[in-house]
């Protein structure tokens, strides 16, 4: 048992280091050969829901012992196939065609649904240790809203560093409480699994010992000082069509997310939005980046982080050089095993409190795309409203279908919505098809995307009302040298794409 726990800590630390490494490498690739916009690449929340669906599938829940590597191999296989599909989507020019259907009214509810879909995961976990989790949420709110205009040496420190400041202060407070014995109970050991605790006294305090202390994870102590992430470190990927098909659909949602980020950030750092060719090139490169993420085993695909837009708007920093330096720092940190160990040792309550803020930001950033359209239009209000409502309501039907109120499932309540494949309403003789449909239609972002893209492209509306005019008047960029410079590929690589116009400028 102690070996398995130790192995879990080490695996988590390795994943963190791998994520840092891949984020750095893919960011350098994207800023050089993708859209060329100063955007960080990394593991996206878009891939989190389908990853949880894979992890909590009935076949994996039935495995005993440490099945982490088996889960990672299945995730790797699904992500690699989905990434290859995304590469095809981008570099074949199909993205140029699909992008004609993707406008602000489609992007807004789709991305907002990604943030809203994790509401059942956020605060329920914060509640495991309220004095830690709530304090962190309050600090983040105070820094980002009430102290946002305070400058230190000419920089709005509290607004720019909201998340690390809130996390650092909360962790320091929790560390002091742990060291002073606030969460120590006579004769009780926080490292003993709850199922093995016999004493009623210890069982009463097991939750506080497990969730409030900062020393229950030994990830920092068990991590080596130096670690080099390498491909296939979890073993040979396992390819399953049903999981891969779900990830393929999700890769389209990830592309929609990225298109919104490209447009929003381009209006902050350049004078024109990217052409459809640049969009296709960026999506193709993100597909290649996700292939790397699958080979190295990060657990998710790699895509443009939507939070970039907020960062650029706040810092007014849209320099490629700054992002390249940041990517280099990520690669360097990934090689220091203790960094991954420290991040992995952050208590789950603090992570949940942090994600409450991040997911709320993601929902807001998604809806902010409506500023490119006529947000007050009754047409757009109805489409966005229906998309958001059905993105929460339809998955709830699939997730709750066939579950008895008194059923005793083997996973925590906030993970129960991800085992829908075993009990959803589709029960044909084809098990793979059942898994695909039950899982796909239980994902909030998929429903939001389907409702929004169908309604926005079938309900009559002017180009200005839909926001099309802002995102489509880009063809002149190819005839303006100053704008061409923003998106032209370096090292004369652009000459190749002159022959492939659908991924050029």
TrEMBL record:
Listed transmembrane segments: 12-33, 75-94, 101-119, 125-146, 158-177, 243-262, 325-343, 349-368, 380-398, 435-455
InterPro entries named among the record's database cross-references: NCS2
Membrane topology of the entry: Multi-pass membrane protein
One Pfam match: Xan_ur_permease
Keywords recorded for this protein, A-Z: Membrane, Transmembrane, Transmembrane helix
Molecular function via GO: transmembrane transporter activity
Main location: membrane
Subcellular location: Membrane
Listed GO CC annotations: membrane
Lineage top rank: taxon: Eukaryota
Keyword Endoplasmic reticulum attributed: no
Similarity remark: Belongs to the nucleobase:cation symporter-2 (NCS2) (TC 2.A.40) family.
Full protein name: Nucleobase-ascorbate transporter 12
Species name: Manihot esculenta (Cassava)
């Amino acid at each position: 048992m102690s070996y398995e726990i130790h192995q879990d800590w080490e695996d988590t630390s390795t994943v963190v280091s791998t994520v840092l490494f891949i984020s750095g490498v893919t960011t350098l690739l994207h800023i050089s050969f993708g859209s060329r916009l100063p955007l960080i690449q990394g593991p996206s929340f878009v891939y989190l829901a389908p990853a949880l669906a894979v992890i909590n599938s009935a076949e994996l829940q039935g495995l005993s012992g440490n099945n982490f590597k088996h889960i990672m191999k299945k995730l790797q296989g699904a992500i690699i196939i989905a990434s290859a599909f995304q590469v095809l989507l981008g570099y074949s020019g199909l993205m140029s065609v699909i992008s004609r259907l993707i406008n602000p009214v489609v992007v807004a509810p789709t991305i907002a649904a990604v943030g809203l879909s994790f509401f059942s995961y956020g605060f329920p976990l914060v509640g495991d240790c309220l004095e830690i989790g709530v304090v962190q949420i309050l600090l983040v709110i105070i820094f980002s809203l009430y102290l946002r205009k305070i400058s230190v040496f000419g920089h709005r420190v509290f607004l720019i560093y909201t998340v690390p400041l809130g996390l650092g202060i909360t962790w320091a407070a929790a560390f002091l409480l742990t060291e002073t014995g606030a969460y120590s109970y006579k004769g009780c050991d926080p490292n003993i699994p709850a199922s093995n605790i016999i004493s009623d006294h210890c069982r009463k305090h097991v939750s506080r010992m497990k969730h409030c202390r900062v020393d229950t994870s030994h990830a920092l102590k068990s991590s080596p000082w130096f670690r080099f992430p390498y491909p296939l470190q979890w073993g040979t990927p396992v390819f399953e069509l049903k999981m891969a098909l779900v990830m393929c659909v999700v890769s389209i949602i990830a592309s929609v997310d990225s298109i919104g980020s490209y447009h929003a950030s381009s209006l902050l750092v350049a004078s024109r939005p990217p052409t459809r060719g640049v969009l296709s090139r960026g999506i193709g490169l993100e597909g290649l980046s996700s292939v790397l993420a699958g080979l190295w085993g990060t657990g998710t695909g790699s895509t443009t982080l939507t939070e970039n837009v907020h960062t650029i708007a706040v810092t007014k920093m849209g320099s490629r050089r700054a992002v390249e330096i940041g990517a280099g720092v990520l690669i360097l940190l990934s090689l220091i095993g203790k960094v991954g160990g420290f991040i992995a040792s952050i208590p789950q309550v603090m992570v949940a409190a942090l994600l409450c803020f991040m997911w709320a930001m993601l929902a807001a950033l998604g809806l902010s795309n409506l500023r490119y359209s006529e947000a007050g239009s009754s047409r757009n209000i109805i489409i966005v409203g229906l998309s958001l409502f059905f993105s929460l309501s339809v998955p709830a039907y699939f997730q709750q279908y066939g579950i008895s109120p008194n059923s005793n499932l083997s996973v925590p309540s906030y993970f129960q919505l991800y085992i829908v494949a075993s009990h959803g309403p589709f029960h044909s003789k084809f098990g793979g098809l059942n898994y695909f449909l039950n899982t796909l239609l239980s994902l909030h972002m998929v429903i939001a995307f389907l409702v929004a893209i169908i309604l926005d492209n079938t309900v009559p509306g002017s180009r200005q009302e839909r926001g099309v005019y802002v995102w489509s008047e880009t063809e002149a960029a190819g005839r303006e040298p100053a704008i061409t410079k923003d998106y032209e590929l370096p090292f004369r690589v652009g000459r190749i794409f002159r022959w492939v116009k659908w991924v050029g400028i």
